[in-house]
Amino acid sequence: MSKGKVTSNVAINFLYNTAYQLLRIILPLITVPYVSRILGAEKLGIYNYTYSIALYFAMLAYLGFENYGNRLIAQNRDNEESLNRAFSGAYYFQMISGAIAIFAYVVYMSLFCKENRLIAWVQLLYISSEFFNISWLYFGLEQFKKTTIVNVIVRLLSFAAIFVFVNDRGDLAAYTAICTGSLLLSTVALWFGLCNHVKFVTVPVKDIWRHAKGCMFLFFPVLVINIYRSMDKIMLGNLSTMTEVAIYSNADKIVELPYGVIAALGVVMLPRMTNFVARGEEEISKRYICVSMRFMLFMACGMAFGMMAVGKVFAPVYFGKEFIACGTLIMVIAPMVIVRACANVVRTQYLLPNKRDKDYIISIVIGVVINLIFNTLMIPMWESTGAAIATLMAESFVAMYQIFACRKDIPVVRYTFSNWVFLLAGIIMFIPVYIYGNKHSKSLSTLLIQVVMGMAIYLVAAGGYLVIKEKEMIRKILCRG
User: Fold this and answer.
1) Concatenated DSSP letters for 402-444?
2) DSSP string, 441-475
3) Nearest to residue 396, comparing CAs of 340, 333, 332?
4) If both were cysteines, with which of 72, 98, 279, 456 could 131 make a disulfide (CB 3.0 to 4.6 Å apart)?
5) Which residues have CB under 8 Å from 58's CB, separation 6+?
6) Could you tell me if 364 and 398 are in contact, meaning their C-beta atoms sit under 8 angstroms apart?
7) pLDDT, tens only, 13-36
8) Count of domains for the chain
9) Which residue segment(s) compose the domain that 440 sits in?
10) In the Cβ-directed half-sphere of 405, how many Cα atoms lie within 13 Å?
């Protein structure tokens, strides 16, 4: 495959994945303020608390398939027989892990769950969705079109359902059912047309269990990541109030939304970089890492400094006065987008394709320890603000270790710091936008002016530099090779 063709395929897949991620940003921007006002902080806190617990069982169901399955399919996709055998064995193992997770959650609900039981039972739909989740197959085949179309349709249906069925504070169960049911529907829908890509075949039991080691090894970092990302909410729920959980969760959701667009590139690049490694194309691999880091930091710096600049105006306008404290939390958490962007490039384009799973796991363990320490110290003093600081510290240490781990193999430090222009452009954009928000009322018109002002300043300052540095790559993407 020619380099131009590779560039074109990556660009098209990135656009498909980005289109879905943009929808994930746009729809919640409409539903979150509505739900926040209808359900209120306490009810949202209950939803986020029960979701955080269900998340652990969902991870047990899906194990490490997001990365392991993606990589497995990418390694076997050129041979039909190998592909069928690899997929069948892996999914049979996923069925076992999914059944165990569902059983374990039922036991938890029967013996240990004493409060908010109805909402917790509805969260079982979320765990069940992972039993059917074969998105890793399509990612490994680089078939992003189907997953995008399915997810877009389901997202639009759930978007409409929220406004139809969630109308007062007694509709928390309906809201939970819509959120979790849409996840189940999107995973089941991927099974239609499966036979066009793979076929189930009989495989020996030993081949099924052969996938256990790879899945469990990559499940550990997924587990640890989600421990320290849900740890904040669980510790807030136990050390503070459900209102603080809701305030923190809303701020965290806003910061997570733009990161979804950045993460889209990592999902697309993992199977591509795995193929490069298998063919020994080291120089092409390094070139893609360099370019990816530049595009990542261009997007991340603009999003992070933009959110920091408008945070205090955005929170009361968007969530309502009950969530005004979200503004400060957004400013604290927003730099995490930059940190995670760097880590995403290193993880999905070097560590995982090269099977450097050990370094990946060590970095995540460091993140958990840091998050636990800072949560324990800061939540009793500063509640949700303390949790936000702890999250930022944990993410920073994860990124620093991953960059440190591969410094001798690829010049990732140089790739990162050579893009300091985007950091400077973000600061240049932040100052006037933040000052404007402080001097004017917290209104929708102020927010809109801030957004337009920030985009104009950043695109002029950073966009011009990007065009100059990556003119040829941009031309290939626009012309599709």
Assistant:
1) HHHHTTTTS-HHHHHHTTHHHHHHHHHHHHHHHHHHHHS-SSH
2) -SSHHHHHHHHHHHHHHHIIIIIHHHHHHTHHHHH
3) 340
4) 98
5) 101, 126, 127, 129, 130
6) yes
7) 666 666 666 666 667 667 877 888
8) 1
9) 3-479
10) 23
